[in-house]
Write a structure and sequence with these properties.
72% strand; three-stranded antiparallel β-sheet; mainly beta
């Protein structure tokens, strides 16, 4: 997995991995390319967190 582009995100690093918090209303965009060269665009609602751990994106749904 590779993050191609993120717009309107705040990045943080913790012992669990790299976290990204959506900071744009109504959503932030994240473009991810998987290992088989497939690209997917995600629209994540404001204040939601995406955790990237061991090349896997976890859309936690928890509010920051």
């Amino acid at each position: 997995m590779e993050l191609i582009q993120c717009t309107h995100w705040m990045q943080g690093i913790s012992e669990r991995g790299v976290s990204y918090k959506a900071v744009h209303d109504p959503y932030s965009k994240m473009l991810i390319e998987s290992s088989n060269d497939t690209k997917k665009l995600f629209h994540v609602p404001k204040d939601k967190i995406v955790l990237v751990l061991d090349s896997v994106a976890h859309f936690t749904g928890e509010e920051a």
